[in-house]
Design brief:
Elements lengths: L4 H31 L8 H8 L4 H9 L4 E6 L14 H11 L3 E7 L5 H4 L8 H16 L6 E5 L5 H11 L5 E3 L11 H12 L5 H11 L11 H11 L15 H16 L10 H4 L2 H14 L5 H11 L6 H10 L14 H7 L1 H11 L20 E5 L6 E5 L23 E6 L2 E6 L9 E9 L2 H9 L7 E5 L4 H4 L8 H9 L4 E5 L12 E6 L16 E5 L4 E4 L3 H6 L20 H6 L11
Parallel strand pairs: 1-2, 1-3, 3-4, 9-10, 10-11, 11-12
Antiparallel strand pairs: 5-6, 7-8, 8-12, 9-13, 13-14
Helix pairs in contact: 1-15, 4-11, 6-7, 7-14, 8-9, 8-20, 10-13
């Protein structure tokens, strides 16, 4: 099916803009792919080191150089619920590889931190930078050049983007991403939000809050709201880097294990040693990137991907801009209502038809490129399916996606969308550029014009709330939260506080050079403001009481101050030394000094 002309036009402009860097990238990975892995040409001492710990059969296969060797890059740790299930995966993968007459080795472990644990804490200032650390850690493992393909075990916020950057840096290698799946449903999301807000108001205590949080996050698997982690899984599937239907199957189930074995066998089938060589760098092209952005909008996905997708695309030589993302939002209907854009969680989304239903519906209205390469070996139309456990209890079978949504309140069709657009928009104005997610914000709250209240630390805003200083209309300007200043932590901790003030009838908005998250909710928030305050951006010259106008409908962010007077102001220069030490922050000074702007992916590469 031919894509909508508007989709084609945006894809063409990305392709034209990217041609020099993309052509150079493809030439590099093509040349590297033609060389093959160095395993067969390593010195005996090198190769002996590479398989010293293997059993006799694996040693024989690796020494021969004629059977594929699969590299496993894993983000396993047993503190993160989403990554704990990966403990079992390497052995499943090795067993499946041996069944194929091949071998598999863990090439690298990469760090995996949880934004849920570090939210509002000093450790959150390492979060965004961890994406680039993950890419580098994966590169260290793959640099041994012992592998014919790789599988990537990762789920959460910065982990999948970091692994994707690594997979594309080693774009001559075939790659399949293997998810662990979401935890089963716990406490309803609206009830969790209600308890959080009551706690913010001092109406319930810490014991009640902890009980509610524990009922929400209660077992192995991804958190079930539609934040960055689950947006990651959607992206890997719609960009053709998962096997079809694998994103949202719960951990530790027979189907999950069957999907992992199947992914292993597929990765081994698409190496250069066979007849279906499918390098990752050719799977992710301009069309796949556009498909990913459309999927993000259609599902009301994470604001973090306005940075991550830019950085991921750049790793493949593709220049994606915020304007591209915003323009695609304007033509993509919102088809999913998953918390915070609704009351359902990802298990309800999966039960209503999941990714197969979504992909088919987007195809039917011409919003996806079907003629892409995928790790599955067919176009993206092959992903309009539901994965099921076969009768043998060990393998996977697939059926066409359901023709009707199992729950139209959760998953709908383009002719009856929840919104005519995806809800992620770029803001422009005399403050620079920013991003807003309006899909969870009521239309009557999308325009706020109010005086600024200035904060240089989110804890200062909480103190002002607790002391009753914020019972008024205002725009909270939380600045010096950008990547250069302190690593750009998420400020999601502010959502319950500002939500209370909204419910009291005040007009409230947030403007920040920091991040919110995939869980950005009902408060209108202009985030990722760039240039950031630390770089001397306009946000650093705002003063207490300046009128600010945030218009989420029309995409503007303005400081309503005489231009000449505003330009004459000196930018604020607070003492940021507290952000430079403790919890490892002192090790990331080079990152803060080298990091790029938010609209360019906030990357150190």
């Amino acid at each position: 099916m031919t894509a909508d002309p508007r989709i084609e036009a945006i894809t063409d402009r990305i392709r034209e803009r990217s041609a020099p860097t993309r052509d150079a990238y493809v030439a590099r990975i093509t040349a590297k792919g033609a060389e093959g892995p160095k395993r067969s040409t390593l010195s005996c001492g090198n190769l002996a080191h590479g398989f010293a710990a293997c059993g006799p059969v694996d040693k024989e296969r690796l020494s021969g150089g004629q059977t594929p060797n699969l590299g496993i890059v894993t983000a396993y740790n047993d503190m993160l619920s989403a990554h704990q299930p990966f403990e079992r995966f390497p052995e499943l993968i090795r067993e499946a590889a041996r069944e194929m007459g091949a071998t598999a080795q863990v090439a690298s472990g990469v760090p995996a931190m949880c934004d849920g644990v570090t939210q509002g804490q000093g450790g959150m200032e390492l979060s965004l930078f961890s994406r680039d650390v993950i890419a580098m850690a994966a590169a260290v493992g793959l640099s041994h050049d012992m592998f014919d393909a790789a599988v990537y075990l990762g789920v959460c916020d910065k982990i999948v983007p970091g692994l994707t950057i690594a997979a594309l840096t080693f774009g001559h290698l075939p790659a399949i991403f293997v998810p662990a799946g979401p935890m089963t449903s716990g406490l309803a999301n609206d009830e969790k939000a209600r308890i959080r807000q009551l706690y913010a108001e001092g109406k319930v205590g810490r014991d009640e809050l902890l009980e509610a949080e524990s009922q929400s996050y209660h077992g192995p698997g991804t958190c079930t709201f539609y934040g960055t982690a689950n947006s990651n899984q959607m992206l890997m599937e719609i960009m053709g880097l998962h096997t079809p239907g694998s994103s949202f199957v719960n951990p530790n189930t027979p189907l999950r294990d069957a999907l992992t074995r199947e992914a292993t066998k597929r990765a081994l089938a698409i190496t250069a040693l066979g007849n279906e060589y499918t390098p990752a760098g050719l799977v992710v092209d301009e069309r796949a990137v556009v498909n990913g952005v459309v999927g993000l909008h259609a599902t009301g996905g994470s604001t973090n991907h306005t940075m991550h997708l830019v950085a991921m695309a750049a790793a493949a030589g593709i220049k994606l801009t915020w304007q591209d993302i915003s323009d695609l939002s304007d033509i993509t209907p919102l088809l999913a209502r998953v918390y915070p854009n609704g009351l359902a969680d990802v298990n309800h989304f999966q039960a209503a038809g999941g990714m197969g239903f979504l992909i088919r519906e987007l195809f039917d209205c011409g919003l996806l490129h079907e003629d892409v390469r995928t790790a599955w070996g067919q176009g993206l139309g092959a992903y309009a399916v539901e994965a099921r456990l076969a009768d043998d209890g060990q393998s996977v079978t697939r059926v066409p996606a359901t023709k009707e949504s199992g729950d139209p309140k959760v998953l709908t069709t383009p002719d009856q969308p929840f919104s005519s657009n995806g809800g992620l928009r770029m803001l422009n104005g005399n403050m620079g550029k920013a991003v807003i997610k309006v899909s969870a914000v009521k239309p009557e709250r999308r325009l706020v014009e109010a005086p600024a209240k200035i904060f240089h630390d989110q804890n200062d805003l909480k103190a002002a709330f607790d002391s009753g200083e914020l019972n008024q209309d205002f725009v909270a300007v939380v600045r010096f939260q950008g990547p250069q200043a302190n690593g750009m932590p998420e400020l999601h901790k502010l959502t319950p506080l500002l939500g209370v003030l909204l419910d009291r009838g005040h007009k409230v908005a947030l403007v920040t050079d920091g991040r919110m998250s995939g869980a950005s909710g009902k408060v209108p928030a202009a985030i990722h403001v760039t240039p950031e305050a630390k770089a001397g951006g306009a946000i650093a010259r705002i003063r207490e009481g300046d009128m600010i106008r945030l218009d989420g409908e029309n995409g503007t962010l303005e400081i309503l101050v005489d231009a000449a007077e505003f330009d004459s102001r000196e930018p604020a220069q607070p003492d940021l030394t507290d952000n430079e030490y403790g919890l490892g922050r002192e090790l990331f000074g080079a990152f803060r000094a080298a990091v790029g702007t938010a609209d360019n992916g906030a990357s150190v590469f």
